[in-house]
Amino acid sequence: MEILHAFIDWILITVEGWGYAGIFVLMAMESTVLPVPSELVLIPAGYLAYQGEMGLLPILLASTIGSLFGASLNYGFALLVGRPFIERYGRYFFVRPPLLHKTDVFFAKHGAVSTFTGRLIPGIRHLISLPAGLCRMKFTTFALYTSLGAGLWSVVLIALGYFIGGNERLLQDNLPLVTIAVLAFVGMTLVGYYIWQRRQPKVAK
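and the corresponding structure tokens:
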């Protein structure tokens, strides 16, 4: 527990001491596989903005760009290292070429919405860039939808810190509700996307 408290204290000190550079670094770490909770980065940053010590837009930019940078590291690793490894040794892990091909086809068709919504789901937003790299998703598409998802999540957390960051009890009561609301938004986005896909004209083969 002491190690956890020390780690949390380090995050908070980094946000306050390093300013926007600290937010960039921490959010880049959060977008890889490192255990840096975005809530502990952006909610305090939002509260500092409320106190007039930081600006809302620079916080959002540092967070979004940092998230994209960290996610791009995952993407690049999966593309340059993971893809050759899976193609060569995947059969030993039950990932045979037909399955890999089906995954490629899925990401070619649904990669954009998967990347966007994946950035909003706890536990998945850290990892969604890995299959995007494995499936050779176009980097410009990956960067666009990663930035949109990361930016939206950042806005939610910054707003929490700005409006109720000084009331710890109110924050604890509302954070689960915010998470549920975000997941509901993801669900509605996926339903809307499914309906839109169903209405698209079938391409003759």
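(Above: one complete record from the training split.) The mean pLDDT is 82.
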